[in-house]
Structure formats: C-alpha cells, structure tokens
C-alpha cells in the first residue's frame, strides 16, 4: 500500500453492515447501515437494488467517486454481496471500506483501521472469506460491551438504549465524517482526527 488512501485514487466501495428489514432497523448491529444512510442523505440519492445482492448508490464523496452499498443478505452472509459489488465495480480489496458495529470500542467512539482479524464479528468473517483477504479498510462504530453477563450476540441484536438514542444522530454523523475523511485524506489523517476524541 503505497499510500493509505482507499482505492489509490480510483472508485471506493463503502459498505455498511446490518440486517435487512424493519425489525432490525434500530439494532446496534445495524450501525453500519445507519452511517451509510447518512452518507446517502449527504449525496442526496436513494439506494437501488443491484444484481450483486446489495442495494447501491453511486456518487462523489470527499472529491472521490464512491459506491455506497448495503448487503440485502443477513449479516452473517454479507461477504457474497460485498464481493459481488467489488467485482461488478472493479474495486480491489484495498478499495473496500466496511462500516460496522464494534463491541470493543466505547459507545460513540469511532476507530479506523486497515486489515486485522474479525474479532468475532460474523459480518467481517464472511467478507474476509469472500474477498479472500483481511486487507480492506474498517470504520468501527463503537457500541460498547454488554452489561453484566449478557451474551454479546444478544446485545448487538437489541435496539440502542433510550440514553444512547439521544446521542445516536450525533454519533452517526461523526462516523460519517470519519468515512469522508478516510476517503479524501487517507487512513492516518482520519485516525489522527477521530481517534483522539
């Protein structure tokens, strides 16, 4: 990776992870969908069904050509639609940015990285398997750890709490800003801007 700009000047595929359907819409696991929905609003466009198995929206963000994508599969099967969209739009793994919920990041914090493990996240595991590499960008939306002995799998499938919901629009907005910074200025600049807060 000569520089830390996703896609090295070409098209960037920005993927939000979540589960489809209204019953999951407010879940912590759907943080990725919330962020790409915010980015779609900034582009002033609407998602359309695509043969890759994702809903997509093409536009320009941070001065770059981007495709926003939301897999229409369930979280655990996200890899197929993501790999399908990457193939269709001719985007290599280093041009893929995945926005997802992260248990090991405090609620409201944003962390960005390139590569690494899936940390028990089934959506990432599926994407890594389908792309054949761990080397893609991740924008991690912190949801924090579950209280007490609650199973993390149950925790992420619950809606954000009333207290969390008060801050949610602000946090989604900040995470969308972090994605824009990553796309326009690169990973190091985005980490410097968003990891401190």
Write the layout of secondary structure elements.
Layout (H helix, E strand, L loop, with lengths): L11 E5 L14 H13 L4 E2 L4 E8 L2 E8 L7 H10 L7 E7 L7 E5 L7 H10 L5 E6 L9 H5 L5 H24 L1 H8 L3
Helix pairs in contact: 1-5, 2-3, 5-6
Overall description:
The structure is a single chain. This protein has one domain: Rossmann fold, CATH 3.40.50. 36% of the residues lie in helices and 21% in strands. It has six helices and seven strands, in the order βαβββαββαβααα. It has a seven-stranded mixed sheet. β2 and β3 form a beta hairpin. It is globular. The mean pLDDT is 93. Its EC number is 3.1.1.29. Keywords: Cytoplasm, Hydrolase, RNA-binding, tRNA-binding.
CATH superfamily label: Peptidyl-tRNA hydrolase
Low-confidence stretches: none
Could you give the order of strands across the largest sheet? 2-3-4-1-5-7-6
CATH architectural type = 3-Layer(aba) Sandwich
Q: What's the helix count? A: 6
Order of helices and strands: EHEEEHEEHEHHH
Give me the secondary-structure category: alpha/beta
Question: What would you report as the Rg, rounded to the nearest angstrom?
Answer: 15 Å
Q: What proportion of the residues is helical, as a percent range?
A: 25-40%
Strand content: 15-25%
- The first-level CATH class is given as Alpha Beta
Number of domains: 1
Task: Average the pLDDT over all residues and give the rounded result.
Answer: 93
Chain oligomer state: single chain
Distance, first to last CA = 27 Å
CATH fold naming = Rossmann fold
Main β-sheet description = 7 strands, mixed
Number of strands: 7
- Shape call: globular
Active site: 29
Subcellular location: Cytoplasm
Site (Discriminates between blocked and unblocked aminoacyl-tRNA): 19
EC number: 3.1.1.29
